[in-house]
Amino acid sequence: MKLNNFKYTAVAVITALTMSSCDDFLDRPTEDSYNTDNFYQTPDQCLSSVNYLYNSPWYDFQRGFIKVGEVLSGNYYWGSSPYLNFSVNGSDQDLVNMSYSLWAVIGHATTLYNTLEATSVANKNQCLGECLTWKAFAYFFLVRSFGDVPIIHNNSSLLASGEYNSLPKVKRSDVYEYIIMTLEKAMEDLEGVKNPTAGRIDYYSAEALLAKVYLTRAGVSGALNASDLAKAAELAKDVIENSGRSLLENYGDVWKLTSNLASESLIAWRWTVGSQWTSQNTLQSDLAQEGMDEFGDDWGGWNGLSVDMQEAFGIKLLENQPDAWINHIDTRLKATMMLPGFSWDYLWRDHGGLDFLRFLYDDTYNAAATGTLQTPTGANCVKHLYGNTADHVADLNIAPARMAYALATHILRLSDIYLIYAEAKLGANRATSTDADVIDAFYAVRHRAIPSSARPAQVSWDDIWKERRLEFAMEGDRWYDYVRVSYYNSDFCVNELANQKRNAYWGLNDLYKEYYTTGMWNVDSSRQGYDTSVSPPNVTVLLRLDSEIGKSYFALPMSSEDVLYNPNLGSNVEGIHVNVRETYSY
Amino acid sequence: MNLNCSKNSLLAGLCAIFLLGYSPVTYAAEGSIPLPNEVQQAKKITGTVSDAMGPVIGASVVVKGTSNGVATDFDGNFSLSVNQGQTIVVSYIGYLTKEFKVDSRSNYEIILEEDKKMLDEVVVVGYGTMKKSDISGASVSLGESAVKGSIITSLDQSLQGRAAGVSAVQTSGAPGSSSAIRVRGTATINANAEPLYVIDGVPVQSGGTSGASYGLGDALGNGSVSTISPLSTIDPSDIVSMEILKDASATAIYGAQGANGVVLITTKRGKAGDAKFTYNGMAAWNRQTKRLDMMNLREYAEYYNSYAEVGEASHVGNFSDPSLLGKGTNWQDAIFQTAFQHSHQVSAQGGSDKVQYYVSGSYMDQEGTIIGSEFRRFSARTNLDAQLKSWLKMSLSVTYSDTKDDLKLADSDEGLIGYSLTTIPSIPIYNVDGTYSSVSQEGYTNPNPIAMAMMDDILLKRQKLNGNIFFEVTPIENLVWHAELGFDLGWNKGETYEPMVDLGTWKRSSNNGRMQKNTSTFWQLKNYITYSRTFGKHSATAMIGQECWESKWDYVSIYNTGLPSDAVHNPALGAGTPQIGAGFGSSSMASFFTRWTYSYDNRYNATYTYRYDGSSNFGPNKRWAGFHSFAASWRFSNEKFIEEAVGKWLSNGKLRVGWGQTGNSSIGGYKWGSPLSTMETALGTSYRPAQIANKDVQWESQEQWNIGLDLGFLNDRINLTIDWYNKESKDMLMQLQLPSYMGTSGNGSSALAAPYGNYGRIRNTGVEISLNTHPLVGKFEWDSEFQISFNKNKLVSLSDGSSNAQLIGYGQWTDVVSLTQVGESLYSFYGYVTDGIYTSLEDIETSAKPAAYPTNGVFAKNSTVYIGDIKYKDLNSDGVIDENDRTNIGSPLPKFTFGFNNTFRYKGFDLNIFINGSYGNKVGNYLKMKLTHMNSTWTNQLKDVSDRAILEPIDPTKDYSAGVDRGDGQLIYNWYDDPYNVKLKNASTSMPRATINDPNDNDRWSDRYIEDGSYIRLKNLALGYNFPKNLVKRWGLESLRLSCNIQNLVTLTKYDGYDPEIGVSTQSPNVMGLDNARYPSPTTYSFGLNVSF
């Protein structure tokens, strides 16, 4: 009997326990992190929720940034890259990653925008404005890279509608209108926010970007549009006069770790070294020679600033003597490329500064010295390099890691706004100008770079075009200059690109080594020369016809993976017109 | 009666005795047997109990009316002290009980006859056991011999080719690596597709399937599947049987965990009697027998020179006269080794009639065939059964295991095999001073693969303690209450370490170390009550039960760089900024279930089960789900009219029909909400939404029909089982696959994760046939088991309202290799179809235009399509070759797989020949793509590249010295830049020209790389010898067996790569059968020793 009692009690207890506690037992929201329902309460939380738009989603774009911006445009030599000879296709890994990244920025910015909009945090407008500025910037890269692209206004409602696999492309001109609309809203949200040195996007950052968008859009109809140019000039002027920002005194300082928060930088990627992959800058790995840092993660030595880029600075390695570059008047040269005789004190400061040739040939100075020059153009990249651990720790007090450093990447600088202003003011007929405002803007940039330069009496479109190349070399922008000009004058672009010196030199190592050991610069045409065996590539493969205006412009193919999901994105399909302002609103 | 039956009967007996707690008789404790000379008229009798096929093990021999009795030993022998005239009862489950009177003889040969009515082997089903004859569902039993028959380190490996309807493909040839087990086809996407393993009632906690979930970061790649097997912690020699439940009527009792099939594993348990010790030892050598045909140094130099001749590279002095060169480094030979493996197990079993025990300890150590890889395991098990009271039984099982894996990243772009194959033969492995050399050439730096294998650590240590304790209470007759507490505790430590390296240009002057400790705790409480009763011709069983479990996990990790020395691998010593990670979480499930079975006159059987599950993985809206199943069978061979008509030759005939529902909930916790993940930025740490939320994520469910027929002929000498099934999974749990413009693609830590949801339907239909025969009986025996499985798989819908939904799989990074479209089978390869090589400029101009066709008609060898490039088919006939010309280029799923196992026995010898194979599956030879893409002069390639398209001038005399206008004003100086003067020399080739820039993208994913993956493999060839009893007895042993075994001796296949058995991709979901330098399965030669005393 006792036994039976025990048994029945046990059964009853166990059954009761399991039945009654089931729902508590099964309710398990995430335990080790916050969730969207219990965050976004304070202004600090609000700002911190936006921070990641400044780095992580952009991570996958870093390589495309250089390959499209600099290799396609002929500024940078990357031996076997399809970007060097325009044979990029839709499954190219860097192109696909670039597309991933830009759309991820838009996805994140949109999701965050919708989430924050529903909150009532005090500084929510500022946060919303930052989201929209980033979204606009990603779209700006997209439309310039791929031409017609779909518009994703609200990703979650698109998901719900199930129409995401049949979205049409939208005409470039309408995408630009969408970007403008987005930036106008961003500026409205950021009204009154002025943070020249906080590293964040403020009102003027959005305005500066809008100026650049107007300048770019001006040619989209096939001819330059005077009112877009006027708008660009007006916005640029406001930024120059009222943003509280100024150019750094020395051009070379812009690229230092200590200038991460310089006010010259209107918009920048804010990398750091974190435990989360994608929080970091990895450009040095692609651009620096083996052994630049301690992590075995540099493989850019075999590439270099193109012969054409060198000649844009007036440097001809096989014709000049080293004096020509060592004492070059333009400070941008040394801030851009490594040439024999150059050294930099902010890099490799634990070795007494980075000396280009010693790095190559002196194994007491550089234990990993290869003893040979790797770059066949003779000029490795300097911009985007942070140096080594000692440099990184000294400036930021953060240790770098493999493919991870915290150097900010400036993607919109004040000098761009000066040149945008100058170019826009030339007007639709691109007439050479003697307008003091134009000359001042142009000279502000040029004089900072070349302190010895005199104020020009007039400025032509060509002057600005060439100045832009020198000022923004390696900043991921040059191809987009070609793209915007191709909108209204593709022949000019095709001609200029076809005549570039995109090939390499041969025999430079002997020349460099001899110069390093003897100080003599003896070019011998039987030992050195410019490679003519590689025939010039054909850039016209990247032209795409806009059948509506009957003109061709530069556009890359869309990621072929997306074409799989959505045949409407195929390279032979043109975008449709959308009345942007009626269809979408913020 | 045949041997197979006797094996099964033995199993049934053991199951019955030790799992049901039902002992047919009560034995006297050995010590209480009076010694013969102490008792008047007592005498000792000995004897053997056998059936038609041989000795019966574990039969009980009892003096009627007393408790004096023993069980027969492994040879059917018994000895017993009795008084003359007493009646001895010999019984064994499944046999007619035999009685005889003790006469003057002292030795008795007893032959038991099978009890036809009780032909019923008892098999394990979920939450109980059933008589085999009552089962209406589809399941397969694998006995101990299947596990013992092959050299395996992980249990799942033994399933290959052994059970109809179960496909097992090893993910890697690494020691202890995992297999992809699919029961009746792949029926789910993304959510875990592996079956549920239940060991003695406790579900195996996998703890993680990807390298990252084991704390190894991305050291093994970024895929959601890794080569690490959760089952490798279990010593296969502790296993006595496996029962694979295939159809839904059998698995529905596991409800939400049963959709992928259930594998019930039973371990050995003790038997009453004196302690019996067994030693099981094995030593084996593993080697890779196949090598790919790579170029040696001389061939490589010639290849390089031919590159230089067409202006793709500049001549280098060392290669100017290849005939002077030797063979150079054979990197492929260097990365593989002949690997030694040995294992030892000691077990003891015995006990009294009240308490039985089985204790074992084992150690195994297996080197991998890739240098530096190794797997070690120590495990110990204790199984204890005790009859505490006549109404109360207790069982306890505990296993502890400790494993250590030295892992290597073998496959993928950054794996050792790929690096070894592509590293050029002109580079030595070592420098003159014995240090590793640097693998660096112009524009090309790779790690020295040998150095990388030997220096970089990827270590995984796992400890596991699992088991259960249960009580079975029989308060009244026919009613059993089973109360059980199961547990599984795991501790893992994943460590990676990259030491400082200074190999010329491969320099890593900052080392880094990472360590992650994972703890997991799983407990399960279950109660079920079974009532069974037989009245007249009716017998019925009802079971009702409850179960709940909770699984908790946590981890901490530390990563740091800049350790001052590599002597100690502790990241805490690093000088860099340490990165610390921590996380914890849990999930739980509560369930109620019931099963009703009814059987009438051994002719009609029916089963109904229902399970109601609640899972914490789902949001409040969709937490609970119920699963029904029913099955019925008709044992028509027991019908009078059939017996009369064909009873002579038809010994068994049963028709089974079943239908059931199961579910799948394994998506991980809180997928229904939107947790925030952290991201460090220069502006401060950011908290960002990790995914798009979907509160309505619900159960993936499955419905399956099964119709089966069991036939036994000629007294079961021939057994045939045929099953047909149709199962349909719906509301598949998966992350929506979206185009990248939805923002959900890219780096895992940067993209917004797509929401989880229930999106599609998959149908698997198939037929399974097993034919077990005993062609020869008697002195020379031959048992043969043949099984063949056909499965058809179809993605019926991906119903999320989108018109163009599909599943994409990647080769490496962003390279699309597979695509599953609605209406097709899963994971088909997707790419272009080749149509020969462009032989001339005219050929290019008159064919459909590829993407690299110049709009201005000016052809340039490095930037436009050119002579010698691959022509692709314009499948949609729109005149251009673009993305839309891709198509399904082959399915990795086989049309059928089969296994054919033969055992021959003669006297003490036994020979086992096991052949398995797969037919009709395609393999994507991703490795071959890398070994023939010819787009770098510093990458070694297959010898086949000598057959590539070679260009030659049409007019060799044309003068280019002053430059020739190529058509757009640009001057060219070489014939090969002049498309008007170039033709293809070897028009019959199918391999494109060598080109660094590859503007036509000749190595795009196309049918060039799709190969027939069908194969027949001599999986196992084993010869064993059991020493004669009387001989070994003299040595004080009970039995002695020597054996040798060769595994994977011969593989017949057309496949070009190492091994046609590829499995699932460790790099990307939705990819199968893609050979991205998979660690090939070795050929294993082993010698074994088995002694009992």
In words, what does this structure look like?
The complex is a heterodimer of chains A (586) and B (1093). With 586 residues, chain A is mainly alpha-helical. Chain A is built from 22 helices and 12 strands. In chain A, strands 1-3 form a two-stranded antiparallel sheet. A two-stranded antiparallel sheet of chain A has the order 2-8. Chain A has a two-stranded antiparallel ribbon with strand order 4-7. In chain A, helix 3 crosses helix 4 (93-117) and helix 4 (93-117) packs antiparallel against helix 5 (124-146). The longest helix of chain A has 25 residues, at 2-26. In chain A, 59% of the residues are buried. In chain B, strand 35 (676-679) and strand 36 form a beta hairpin. By secondary structure, chain B is mainly beta. Chains A and B meet through helix 1, helix 2, helix 4, helix 6 and helix 21 of A and strand 28, strand 29, strand 30, strand 31 and strand 35 of B.
Please write out the topology.
The complex is a heterodimer of chains A (586) and B (1093).
Chain A: H1 2-26, H2 43-51, H3 62-72, E1 76-77, H4 93-117, H5 124-146, H6 155-161, H7 172-190, H8 203-217, H9 226-242, E2 265-269, H10 283-287, E3 304-305, H11 307-312, H12 323-326, H13 331-336, E4 337-338, E5 343-344, E6 354-355, H14 356-361, E7 380-381, H15 389-396, E8 409-413, H16 414-426, H17 436-449, H18 461-471, H19 478-498, E9 505-506, H20 508-518, E10 529-530, E11 543-546, E12 551-554, H21 560-565, H22 580-583
Antiparallel strand pairs in A: 1-3, 2-8, 4-7, 5-6, 9-10, 11-12
Helix pairs in contact in A: 2-5, 3-4, 4-5, 5-7, 5-8, 7-8, 8-9, 8-16, 9-16, 16-17, 16-18
Chain B: H1 3-18, E1 42-51, E2 54-55, E3 60-63, E4 69-71, E5 77-83, E6 87-91, E7 98-101, E8 107-111, E9 122-125, E10 128-131, E11 139-143, H2 144-148, E12 166-170, E13 179-183, E14 196-199, E15 202-203, E16 239-245, H3 248-251, E17 262-267, E18 273-287, H4 297-309, H5 331-335, E19 339-351, E20 355-367, E21 374-389, E22 392-406, H6 416-422, E23 439-441, E24 444-446, H7 449-455, E25 457-473, E26 479-498, E27 501-503, E28 506-508, E29 512-535, E30 538-561, E31 579-600, E32 604-615, E33 624-634, H8 640-646, E34 650-664, E35 676-679, E36 686-689, E37 700-713, E38 718-730, E39 733-735, E40 756-758, E41 761-776, E42 780-797, E43 806-810, E44 816-821, E45 829-831, E46 834-837, H9 841-846, E47 849-850, E48 870-872, E49 880-881, E50 887-890, E51 896-906, E52 909-919, E53 922-924, H10 926-931, E54 951-953, E55 964-965, E56 971-972, E57 982-984, E58 1010-1012, E59 1015-1026, H11 1029-1034, E60 1039-1053, E61 1083-1092
